[in-house]
Specification:
- The protein is of the alpha+beta class.
- The chain folds into 2 domains: 2-76 and 203-237, no CATH class; 82-194, no CATH class.
- Helices cover 26% and strands 37% of the residues.
- The protein is built from 2 helices and 13 strands; from the N terminus they run H-E-E-E-E-E-E-E-E-E-E-E-E-E-H.
- Strands 5, 6, 9, 10 and 11 form a 5-stranded antiparallel β-sheet that branches. Strands 1-2 form a two-stranded antiparallel sheet.
- Strand 1 and strand 2 form a beta hairpin.
- Helix 1 (2-26) packs antiparallel against helix 2 (200-237).
- The longest helix is centred in the C-terminal third of the chain and has 38 residues, at 200-237.
- The chain is elongated.
- The two termini are 21 Å apart.
- Keywords: Bacterial flagellum, Cell projection, Cilium, Flagellum.
- Residues 4-34 form the Flagellar basal body rod protein N-terminal domain.
- One of its GO terms (cellular component) is bacterial-type flagellum basal body.
- Residues 190-232 form the Flagellar basal-body/hook protein C-terminal domain.
- This is Flagellar basal-body rod protein FlgG.
């Protein structure tokens, strides 16, 4: 039975990899998307002990681990390719940092710089979330606005708010929340967007490998199940 458990546990891990890789591939063209990776941890099953005759007590030999389980799915923040679009409402952050946006009074952070000017003249993203300045105020722009590399708007005292994050959590595909820290060593590029950091070729290779592992483990479960059935049959005939 232990062999079936180990193989079944491995199948669940491979299935988790398949789901994450498939999600990465589905977002290969999503602006500002950061690929996810899975991390696993060993699962403690029980402590192994041996009885010491001389000392007349149990002595711990070590721990027996039953396998691994999915522990966390976390994004990788490597830089995606920055491409020019010719659209003045498009922005990309070269380096570390996130745009700060407001949705229904709640703050989120994103690398997706596909913005637009709404009917009220405010700078928003494609979901209608307001882009904020360094005072956490909504940014009102005209048709001729421009932004320099440090986020300064029209040579005024207003700056697009770019911050870095600690203890981040992902919300949806391109939004994050976390603890703000000062963003350093970044350049804001207008007329550009940052593409997804997913390498489609690498993800396809990972997908094939995960599929192969799943198939091998599935065969192991079938083989172990058949072997256990045969052992039971022999035991009944003894």
């Amino acid at each position: 039975m232990r062999g079936i458990y180990f193989a079944g546990n491995g199948m669940l891990n491979s299935l988790a990899d398949l789901n994450t890789i498939s999600n990465n591939l589905a977002n290969v063209d999503t602006t500002g998307y950061k690929k996810d990776i899975n991390s696993f941890r060993a699962v403690y099953e029980r402590e192994i002990s041996s009885y010491n005759q001389k000392k007349q007590k149990l002595e711990t030999l070590g721990n027996l681990y039953a396998g691994t389980v999915l522990d966390d799915i976390s994004p990788t923040f490597s830089q995606g390719e920055i491409v020019d679009t010719g659209n003045k409402y498009d922005f990309a952050i070269e380096g570390k940092g996130f745009f700060k946006v407001e949705r229904d009074g709640e703050f989120f952070y994103t690398r997706n710089g596909e913005f637009k000017r709404n009917s009220e003249g405010y700078l928003v993203n494609n979901s209608g979330d307001y882009i904020l300045n360094v005072d956490n105020e909504r940014i009102e722009v005209n048709e001729d606005f421009f932004v320099n590399g440090n986020g300064n708007i029209n040579n005024t005292n207003e700056y697009i708010n770019v911050v870095d994050l600690e203890n981040h959590t992902k919300h949806g595909y391109t939004l994050f929340q976390g603890d703000e820290i000062e963003a350093q060593d970044f350049t804001l590029r207008q007329y550009s967007i940052e593409k997804s950091n997913v390498n489609a070729l690498n993800e396809m290779v990972n997908l094939i490998n995960a599929n192969r592992k799943f198939d091998i483990l599935q065969k192991a479960v079938t083989s172990n199940d058949g072997l256990n059935a045969k052992i039971s049959e022999i035991a009944q005939n003894i």
